[in-house]
Amino acid sequence: MFVIDVIPLSRTAPSGLLSYRSRVLLPQGSIVHIMLRKKATQGIVVACVPVQEAKSMLKRANFVLRASEPALAGAIPESVMSAVREVSEYHAASLGSVLATLFGEQVKSDVPLVFPKMERAVGGFKELRFEQSVTDRVESYRSLIEASIAAKRAVLLVVPTLAEVEFWKHAFAKHKPLVLSGAVSGFKRKQVLELALDATGLVIATPSFSWSPISSLDAIIIDRVSAGTYTLPKRPYINIASALRALASARELTIAYGDYPLPLEYRADPAAPLEFPLTIPTIVHDARKAVDETDTAKIEANEGPWRALPAEVLASIRSELSEGGHVVVLASRAGYAPAVGCRDCGQAVVDERGMQLSFTQAGGKRLLRSSDGKTVIDAKIVCARCGSWNLLPLGVGMERVAEELAAEFPETAIIQAPTESLRTKSMVIKTLEDSEKPGTILVGTESLLPWLLLRTLKHGTTPLAVIASADSLLALPFWRSRERFVRLAYFFAGLSQKLIVVTRKPEDTAVEAIRDSAHTTFFNEEASLRKILTYPPYGTLIVLHAEASPEAIDTLQMLVVQALGDTSYSVLPDRAVTGRVLRRTTVRTLPEDAWPDSELSNRLQQLPPNVRLAIDPESLW
To answer: What's the CATH number for 282-519?
Structure first.
């Protein structure tokens, strides 16, 4: 007699594993019929142990095993299960949580998990890299897709957002792609998941649907592989790009990565210059005031207030508008200023959780707001460190850019597109339709860019694009912020006929890489810094966030240190999550090819749920 742990494939099932009796040994990945609330459903076996080994657990349990005998209904192929085990070890997550996450859409849709014979690709496992602008990637992908369709096999194109689903669906409309995304609901979702199993053409999917079973899969394309949405937002925080590589390797498929430029860990040579440089005019404008100490008149002339958009940039915008064109201006984030600091002591203004507050205006009120919106307070406060009232908004937010544009162009329609206005397709369509009219200015943040892809496909590129806050983007609290900045600028440039970048750091090699994309200094410098720090691609970052009360945080930290073993690590300053909960972050770097480590992975899996683990996250915080 055995005890099996099962993941129920039902959206009404409780979270976690259910335990049943079995007369036969069922290997991991077996698919069984189980009874759940007097109703038959499917489940995936994640563990099977003899009753003798489970006796102590059964004695302590507050439940009694059902008398029903689970009936074997199939099995997940060993190639897929080996990939699941690899993903589990890499992310230091339990096998059950990984299975539940990767096949979560089948669970939520009550779709039976079926695995007929998984066909292997003819050419075996290989990796391709497409480091090109989005328009060039369309043609590169087309060749790969059409070759697979000719062989009557399927290609999976994974894209990070619903906006990009729309773009790629239109780009490959003649191939009549099958779309798997959260925009498909109800019976239709169940239907497309079932159709994907036997698909022999193009399948477009968002990250959470990317592991949907496809029997005749030939190739996987991961577009914009750098996007943050490839890391799933809930525990176990799986990086889908990494998980799909494991799947492609196990099933001997072709996997292709597309971006411009690719993240350093996906480039064949991290320090190499771009093979396909930008071709559109790119102007970097130095926003610092020119000061000539020999000319008193010039010094006095430069005493005026600093502006987010200098006069020369405004002149370029005016010229474009006069010719009936339209302009898109990008700010680093919503609000008036991304940060607020104390002029007297230099302390950044944060909430009780340690989250930086931005300055914004709404309904005639001046407010301070956290990025997640959980903290919104009146701006009439004093510095928590020195008590000074002399607080200064820092950086350039979307509202400030729009305010300056409205003052300069009072007769021009200025459309703001904050993230909240881009939550539904109908809202986006309305915003984009208004901004397509001649003589309009669209102001948004980087969340706007994927939606501009679709507008580009229908109406052509934007005549003039402006990045108003390059310095704020470079200062984002990400260890790869400079690489992200270069990629965002290239993305924006690919949707435009002309790009202007406003910065006070024109000498930064990241800015030089935008002015001249054939420039090699940025990639050399970034690769050298990563190598010194043992950051990807020259190492692996293991980041653990322990959250507990001030009294319990040290005890919890001891468990983290024990799990890491006899290794060096860094501990970041505690941050308040709430009034009674602190977060302590521990960072461990491992040299290249040292991860995954099965023993370390197993120890990290045993940590309590109030320790959050991330592998190579964007931010250490």
So the answer is: 3.40.50
